[in-house]
Every structure is written in structure tokens, then in C-alpha cells.
Amino acid sequence: MPEATLRDTVLRIGEEANAAAVAVAVYDFEHHTTWSINPARWFHAASTIKVPVLLAVYEAIEQGRLEPYSRVHVRNRFLSIYDGRPFRVPPGRDADAAVYAALGRMLTVHELAEHMIVTSSNLATNLLLDLVGIDAARASLTRLHLSGIELLRGVEDEVAWEAGVNNRVTAAGLCNAMRLIEEGKAISPEASRAMLDILHQQRFRSGIPAGLPDDARVAHKTGEISTVAHDAGIVYLDGRDAYVVVILTEWAPETNGRQETIARISRAVYQYMTGRTE
């Protein structure tokens, strides 16, 4: 599939689904080439912001400030980054009940990191972000030279959200983050391998993986709220080097077909990257 045809195909998929906006960024390790549509457009990050949080956690581990098996007291009380007001993460707004079941007990940093990525636990995310510190997490991104990612607050901080303080990402920013992890340059080779192992366990597979052959392997992180649906991943296929693909989409509330749209775009990118049409 020629590059111009891929662009037309992706734009047509977005238009047919009534998406308000679509951005895609791709990096191919096979040919060391890039391809993108709207790579610098900002989107609400939703749960894709958990990848930068994961980076910050593993930098803290690398620096000896944390250990993977450090024990963390599980609580559900946090302070808004905007005005310091306490807030909680509602269980109904979280994809993972397991962390709530551990309230009042202890989980390890590694367990919380898995819950944050694999089942997208908001509670685990806030516990880890509190542990690392928002300023330290932002500093991690700066040290990694990752632009196109704004990590400003924890999740479900409604006061900050109402004030317009939101986590934002671009397709290019997330693509560069995933590239660093695959290249073994995210913190260290050991940290990169540990993060890849967690990303490979992702349970929400109706986005990028759904557009790929059954034997494809994907290390990825999804994110979805009322107005956006995203997926950012590294795709592994037999017989070729991996490629990174980030698909960000924006929608009117209650619009259907979001995951199917991401899967269709993933399929189009796969066909472009491999030359296969099956």
C-alpha cells in the first residue's frame, strides 16, 4: 500500500466512523522509517498517561528510591493537584476491582504497576504517582527528552479537571516513549525489559491487536473516556522487526464504534508496513 493510499485510508476510516479527530504515528524498526498523520495534535491522554507513570516508577527503581517489591499501603485518599482538596477514585470508574479489594492492606510496587497497565487500574496509578511524586515523574520525562506528553495530575482529580488541568499526549510523544522502551533506552535495558513484560500482558485487546493476524504479539496501553479512545503499542510479527503504532482518536460523547475504528486503522497500518493484504 503506497504512503498516500494509507493516508487516504486512515482519513476515510475516521470519517466513516464520525471521529472528530484522528492522529497516527508509526516507527518501523525494520526500515528505520516513520509515518504519521497529525502527530503533534494534543489529545486528552486518558489511560495512555499510565505509560509515562510507568517510566517514572522504573526510573525511581533504577535510582534506588524504590524496589520492585517495596510494599505500599493501599488507600483511597489523594489530594488534588489544583487546590489540595482530598478526593477518592470511585470504584465504578475503574476497570480493576482487585486493588480496591486490597484496601487497608499492602501491595508491592511491581503488583501496582501491573494493575496500572494490564487492567488499567486508576487506583494503582494514583498510588504509584503519589509514591514517585508528580514533579519527579515530570522530571523523568524531561531526562528522557520526551516532548509531546504532559503529565500534570493523577486520574479522577475532578477539581483539576474542571479547572482545565489535564494530562495530554500527542501521537508523536507516545510513539517516542514506546520506541525508547523497545530500544532498551527507557531508563536502562533492564528497566525497559521489565516494562515491556508488563505491557505485553495488556488485557484490553479490541484496539490495535484486533486489526492484526492472530499470531501477532503486541505490547501496548489503551485509554478511553467519554470523548477519546486511544491505543499505543509495539507490534511483533514473525519474520520482521517490530514497529510502533500509536492511534489517538477524539469523539463526540456516546459515539459508537471507537474500538472498531482503532482496529481498522491498525489493520491499514499493518498492510502498509508488511505489504500483505490478507
List keywords for this structure.
278 residues, alpha+beta, Beta-lactamase, 5-stranded antiparallel sheet, 3-stranded antiparallel sheet
What would CATH call the homologous superfamily of the domain at 1-41 and 170-278? DD-peptidase/beta-lactamase superfamily
Pattern of helices and strands: HEEEHEEEHEHHHEHEHHEEEH
CATH topological fold name of the domain at 1-41 and 170-278 = Beta-lactamase
The share of residues in extended strands comes to 15-25%
> Largest beta sheet: what is the strand line-up?
2-1-12-11-10
Spans where pLDDT lies below 50 across 5 or more residues? none
Explain the overall architecture:
By secondary structure, the protein is of the alpha+beta class. It has helices at 3-16, 50-62, 98-101, 109-118, 122-132, 134-143, 158-162, 171-183, 189-199, 258-274; strands spanning 21-28, 33-37, 43-44, 71-73, 78-79, 86-87, 106-108, 149-150, 168-169, 217-224, 228-236, 243-250. β1 and β2 (33-37) form a beta hairpin. The longest helix has 17 residues, at 258-274. The chain is globular.
